[in-house]
Each structure stands twice: as C-alpha cells, then as structure tokens.
UniProtKB/TrEMBL annotation:
One of its GO terms (cellular component) is membrane. It is found in: Membrane. Pfam families: Pkinase. Its EC number is 2.7.11.1. It comes from the Eukaryota. It is a single-pass type I membrane protein. This is non-specific serine/threonine protein kinase. Gene3D superfamilies: Phosphorylase Kinase, domain 1. InterPro entries: Kinase-like_dom_sf, Prot_kinase_dom, Protein_kinase_ATP_BS. ATP binds at residue 110. Residues 81-159 form the Protein kinase domain.
C-alpha cells in the first residue's frame, strides 16, 4: 500500500509540474508587454471603423511589407483575368496565374463579391491581416494585395 501511495504522489507531482511549465511557456509567448499591459495606439495594426475594429492596411503594409498593387497592374499580370489564366476556383474566389512586370510569377486570388459591400470589406481586411501574419515553410507567402474599385485581390508567390 505504501508503494501505491508513493507512486500516486509522484504522478501528482509530475502532472502539476507539467502544468506549471506549460502555463509559464504560454505566458511567455503571449505576453509581449514591457511593463504595461496596454499596447500603444501607434503599435496597433487595428483601427476603429464605425465602432468596429478592423485592420489598418497602411500599418500592415509597413509591418509586413505587403505591397499594394493597382488593379490595372494585376489585370495585366493575369492577362485580363481570362479563363485560360485560372489555376484554381472555389466558391468565394478564383485564382489566376500571372506574371508581374519584374518577371515574378504570382498567383492572384480574386474574390467573388457578395452584395454586402461592408461585409466584403471587413472579411477581406480580416483575411489580409491573418495571412500577413502567417509565415511557414509549407504555406505560400502573401506578397501583396489590391483593394480598389470594389475589387479585392490577394497576391501570393506562385508554386
């Protein structure tokens, strides 16, 4: 019976120790505060828009080096968004193969817009913010975007 009690005590110590280590690692990764819990407004990549928080595209561009493309530039790169340039199609977008003026081959994701323009804009900005933060060897890099004349396009490296 004494052996079982010792085993249980060791198991309990191991579980508590593991939980403590995981908690400390979580706090170190997610707490980027330097003496203050509040982030300054100039550090934020979000702005208020009619009471709603949305990504500040100018700030994202500076931080993530996401290039802003013109619609005309991407239209030329993707050969006028012709059917022959399509490399993928989903329920919310078409992906076109394109070549930029500097010779870079890119994938241009052109959103299929719904009738709710405000919703389109919010979804686009949220997606842009999330994609600009991702950096992984198995994911394509976001090179830039275009939000012009009601069009929403994302530009990725072509694989």
């Amino acid at each position: 019976i004494a052996t079982a009690e010792i085993g249980f005590a060791l198991l309990l110590i191991a579980v508590v120790s593991t939980a403590a280590v995981l908690y400390i690692r979580y706090r170190l990764r997610h707490c980027r505060c330097s003496g203050s819990d509040a982030r300054s407004s100039k550090d934020s990549v979000f702005t208020k828009d009619n009471g709603k928080i949305r990504p500040d595209l100018d700030e994202l561009q500076k931080r993530r080096r996401a290039r802003v493309f013109t619609y005309e530039e991407l239209e030329k790169a993707a050969q006028g968004f012709k059917e022959e340039s399509i490399v993928g199609k989903g329920s919310f977008s078409c992906v076109y193969k394109g070549v930029l003026r500097d010779g870079t081959t890119v994938a241009v994701k052109k959103a299929i817009m719904s009738s709710d323009k405000q919703k389109n804009s919010n979804e686009f900005r949220t997606e842009l913010d999330l994609l600009s933060r991702l950096n992984h060897a198995h994911l394509l890099s976001l090179l830039g975007y275009c939000e012009e004349g009601g069009e929403r396009l994302l530009v990725y490296e072509f694989m």
